[in-house]
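Input structure tokens:
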């Protein structure tokens, strides 16, 4: 079967790498892809905002499944357009993708379905926002309602920070994504990400992961898309996972289906593990990046079969996916200046050496320059990923490989996995 994969980051390289291992794959096309994805797919140019052009491509190339990596095309309704044309799509329609597209939509759904989450208020003006801050007090969390590339959330420890965040949003910093905002209660606990596949009815748990959002060691500095991750996140124990499934994920899937907007695709629940149990922080309508990279390194099942069964509402009929019990860990190599102004064009070499050492290096923000060499072209550039019998062993293997990559204009965090490694050490 021919598959079209949309996206260009490390998440999509990991998906392409895994899709390519399936005996069911005919030809893989990727738009726009990247030099790593090019090892597994034919790269094509497609404007994903032009739904008719994407449908035409699918007709012309006998595409049997479209896998949508990032959230923007989903929130834009590409899934609806492809389904209307008869193509199976991995990824939700526009209405259920509002779980990621609108923080207020998700909070209201939680309220309707009695799902544990932080107390909140939706606000549409500066005055309403400031009044809500008065009621909540600091610490408090302020979120632009729409997609803001991970930059729309402020965890304010003081009232002054909170006021500045609300002022920023209503001064137009996030454009249309900040026409509305959510002010919510500050939750305390450790975070974990939980991934499930659902076709609107059946729910198939995949695995847990934890990422590191701050740019600097020890969780310091500004937020990023994620500087590294590992899976599984054992802090989400089997008991807590069952609780998250029963109290958060299942009522979400049931409610959306009952309301006539069933969710199909991967549902990524960002959880806060509080003293009162797991609470929902946010939903994403796609795989995490770089969480997908560690999930794919652990996945032993056929990814084509899983994603196709999801797209064709056959999840209940297939065997549960198998993940290696061995943890996987990924270290993001970012370009100097990330997340503000990453330096572009930095030369990269040594990827083959790192892979010969046993790691898998996913391309996240690279391109091939005029001389045919791989150079940096984005903020997050490479994801050096490895498995081991423990998180510590996976971490050691990943950093050994990082040392073999030559990327003078890059940097990474040196403490990926530190929480879990401390727990492993304490358990000895
Ligand atoms: P989000 O984009 O909603 O995942 O928020 C980004 C980050 O902000 C999360 O990963 C958390 O670290 C933090 N965060 C979001 N909501 C809350 C909350 N209610 N309480 C504490 N931290 C939060
Ligand atoms: N790594 C966080 C995300 O993909 O949203």
């Amino acid at each position: 079967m021919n598959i079209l994969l949309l996206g260009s980051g490390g998440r999509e390289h990991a998906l392409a790498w895994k899709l390519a291992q399936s005996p069911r794959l005919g030809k893989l096309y990727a738009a726009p892809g990247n030099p790593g994805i090019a090892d597994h797919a034919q790269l094509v140019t497609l404007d994903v905002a032009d739904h008719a052009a994407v449908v035409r491509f699918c007709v012309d190339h006998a595409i049997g499944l479209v896998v949508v990596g990032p959230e923007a095309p989903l929130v834009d309704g590409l899934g609806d357009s492809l389904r209307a044309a008869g193509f199976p799509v991995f990824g939700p329609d526009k209405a259920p993708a509002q779980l990621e597209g609108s923080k207020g939509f998700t909070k209201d759904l939680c309220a309707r379905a009695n799902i544990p989450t932080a107390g909140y208020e939706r606000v549409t003006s500066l005055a309403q926002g400031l009044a809500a801050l008065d009621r909540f007090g600091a610490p408090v969390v302020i979120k632009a309602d729409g997609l803001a590339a991970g930059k729309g959330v402020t965890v304010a420890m003081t009232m002054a920070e909170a006021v500045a965040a609300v002022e920023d949003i209503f001064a137009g910093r996030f454009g249309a994504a900040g026409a509305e905002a959510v002010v919510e209660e500050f939750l305390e606990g450790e975070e974990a990400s939980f991934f499930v596949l659902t076709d609107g009815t059946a729910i198939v748990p995949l695995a847990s992961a934890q990422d590191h959002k701050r740019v600097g060691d020890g969780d310091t500095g500004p937020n990023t898309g994620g500087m590294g991750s590992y899976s599984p996140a054992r802090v989400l124990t089997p008991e807590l996972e069952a609780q998250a499934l029963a109290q958060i994920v299942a009522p979400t899937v049931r409610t959306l289906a009952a309301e006539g907007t069933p969710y199909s695709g991967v549902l990524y629940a960002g959880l806060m593990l509080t003293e009162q149990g797991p609470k929902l922080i946010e939903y994403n309508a796609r795989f995490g990046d770089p969480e997908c990279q560690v999930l794919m390194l652990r996945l032993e099942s056929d990814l084509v079969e899983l994603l196709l069964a999801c797209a064709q509402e056959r999840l209940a009929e297939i065997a549960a996916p198998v993940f290696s019990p061995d943890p996987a860990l990924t270290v993001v190599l970012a370009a100097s200046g990330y997340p503000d102004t990453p330096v572009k064009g930095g030369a990269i070499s040594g990827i083959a050496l790192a892979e010969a050492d046993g790691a898998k290096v996913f391309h996240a923000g690279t391109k091939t320059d005029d001389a045919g060499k791989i150079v940096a072209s984005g903020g997050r550039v490479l994801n050096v990923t490895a498995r081991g019998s423990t998180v510590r062993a996976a971490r050691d293997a990943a950093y050994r490989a990082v040392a073999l990559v030559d990327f003078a204009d890059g940097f990474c965090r040196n403490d990926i996995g530190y929480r879990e490694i401390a727990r492993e050490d304490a358990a000895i």
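The chain has a mean pLDDT of 96. The chain is about 30% helix and 25% strand.
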